[in-house]
Amino acid sequence: MLGVPELRPARLREMDQAALRTYAALSGDLNPIHLDREQAIRAGHPGLICHGMLAMTDIGGWLTHAMAGWRLVDYACRFVAPMAVGTRLQVTACGGEPQQEDGLVRVGVELVARDAEGIIRVTGRADFERSRVDPR
C-alpha cells in the first residue's frame, strides 16, 4: 500500500451572506448576483448565489487536509449548478490508483459535491504527489 488515505465524505460549512461578503471583499469579485438579492433575481436566480470559487476554496481546504502528507499539484472544478445562500455541500471523493514515477508517487482524486437534496453542484479533480519514501 502506498499510504493513500481513505477519503470519507464531508459536509462543508453552510454558505451564508457573511461568507459571501467576506469572500467578495477579499477576492474583488463584486458581481451583484452574490451581494444584491434584487440583482440576482433580475438575473434569473431565486436569490443570492454563492461564489463558485468560494465553494472551490472550501473543497480544496478539505481535500488538502484529508490528503495530509501529500502535495497538491493540480486542482480543477466544474460548477454544475448555482448554489443559493444557505447551501451546505456534502463532498465525496475517490482516489485513483497511485502511480510511481521518478521517485514520486502520484494519485488523482475525483470529487463530487452535492447539496442537501442530492443535486450535484460541483465536480472536480485534484492531483497529488509525494516522495516514494513516506517520512512518517
Quick structural overview:
26% of the residues lie in helices and 35% in strands.
Question: What keywords describe this structure?
Answer:
35% strand, 6 strands, alpha+beta, Thiol Ester Dehydrase, Chain A, 4 helices
Total strands: 6
Low-confidence stretches: none
Cα shape: elongated
Q: From N to C, what is the helix and strand string?
A: EHHHHEEEEE
Helix share, percent: 25-40%
Strand content: 35-45%
**Count of runs of 4 or more consecutive helical residues:** 4
CATH superfamily of the domain at 10-14 and 52-131: Hotdog Thioesterase
How are the elements arranged and paired?
Layout: E1 10-14, H1 17-27, H2 32-35, H3 37-42, H4 52-66, E2 71-79, E3 88-95, E4 99-101, E5 104-114, E6 120-131
Molecular structure report:
This protein has 136 residues and is an alpha+beta fold. It has a domain at 10-14 and 52-131: Thiol Ester Dehydrase, Chain A, CATH 3.10.129. 26% of the residues lie in helices and 35% in strands. The mean pLDDT is 93. Residues 13-95 form the MaoC-like domain.
